[in-house]
Known about the structure:
The chain is an all-alpha fold.
Amino acid sequence: MTYPHQPQHPDRSQQPGRPREPRHSREPHHPHHAYHPHLPPHDSSPSYPTYPWQPVAPTPPPPRPRLPRHPALGRHSDLRHLRSAYRWQRRVATLTALGYFTLFLVLSAFAPALMTDPVSGGLTTGLLLGLCQVPVTLIAIALYEFTARRRVDPLAERLRKLAELEANR
Length: 169
């Protein structure tokens, strides 16, 4: 069908000696819907028994779990020791810094007379305790590093070597 505004052209696919191609070919235009002759046709029968008197196929037994040759690394006692050492390290460093700051807040709230007492010149007890927060924080960091080098790093290195040996087996 042609419209008045379209030019009249002969069908270019219609050349002498060449058969005319059908307008809708059997091959789909979308690549996901392609026809694959090498694949078997789709089986449209249901996967469940059609009639109630048909026997039900037995389900296969589940595969037996394969036991590892060696205990898992996560259950290793060294890993538990490493976790507890790291936990202890975090608690000590956190409680050192937060404990001092909490003490400062409690004294500010419940002992304002103590915090406003002058120590020397214009320096009050509250200001002196506030300025001491910086060295206490630095002490908490140094304590964290000390416990890391003394307790955590040797355990971590030992576990790292053990994991490398396990990987090479």
